[in-house]
Amino acid sequence: MYNLLSFLWRNLAIISLIVLQSIAITLVVKNSNYQRNTLVSSANTVSGSVLKKWDDFTGYFYLKEKNRALAMHNASLLNHSETSYIITNDSVFVSDNTLYRKQFEYYSASVISNSTLKENNYMIIDKGSRHGIEADQAVLSPLGVVGIVKDVSPNFSSVISLLHSDIRISSKIKRNGYVGTVNWNGKDYRFGKLIDIPYHLSVEFGDTVTTSGYSTVFPKDVPIGRVVSVKPNINDNFYDIFIQFFTDFNRISEVYVVKNNYKAELEELKANFKE
């Protein structure tokens, strides 16, 4: 009690000033509409600014969860899109009086490990065999091709990134359908090469390159990149074509794993051709 009284006595002048100013402000605001509106407006501005900063601060921590929820929603949409089905007689999907049966299924997953600076790059995702993931399934980002599933454990899977020397993806130029192969140049994670395009064909700067649909792994027309350089190779009859990948491999966080329900049947037919 003595300490409290001593504190009040030492700060009596400041406390009195605060009390008198509070009374003065109250009287001015109470008897002046202009001052009252000005004070309320200023208070709203300050509180709004504080709440906005707090929302931005908390939103940052929930961003990863929001991205994951969005990826799951997108996977659901892809599963029900017409491009996931093929025409058949015993269908589960009807469009324009045509019967379809699902060919591709999409599973969302998060990337928990990734590399971009090695000659052969891999990533690890947080889904495995108990989630329906199998080896040799396609992996996509919301922007395009990512890679192919390599090994699978019950809860995780490793993915051979498109940034790998062994990856070859059957591709086409979207504008005219000319088919080639995309691989990585082994240097910059942003760029790759489109090979096997004869130089008598039309290739232009800015052309979009997509999957051809000839593979049993990737659905057709999945974006890969755009042409940024076209030069005839003086040593053969093909172009040297460089593309910029649509997927930013240095920032990838959410992916889709694609299952082809007819993969085994198609590969059996292809094996007969090889024999």
Description:
With 275 residues, the chain is an alpha+beta fold. It has one domain: Thrombin, subunit H. The protein has four helices and 15 strands. It has helices at residues 2-10, 12-31, 33-79, 263-274, and strands at 85-87, 93-95, 98-102, 104-114, 122-125, 138-140, 145-152, 157-161, 169-173, 179-184, 191-195, 208-211, 223-232, 239-245, 254-260. The chain has a six-stranded antiparallel barrel with strand order 4-5-8-7-6-15. A six-stranded antiparallel beta barrel has the order 9-10-11-14-13-12. A hairpin with a 6-residue loop joins strand 10 (179-184) and strand 11 (191-195). Helix 2 (12-31) crosses helix 3. It is elongated and about 100 Å long. Mean pLDDT is 79; it is low at 43-48 and 85-97.
Overall structural class, as computed from helix and strand content, comes to alpha+beta
Overall 3D form: elongated
Radius of gyration: 31 Å
Kindly report the CATH topology. Answer: Thrombin, subunit H
How many helices does DSSP assign?
Answer: 4
Number of domains: 1
Distance between the termini: 100 Å
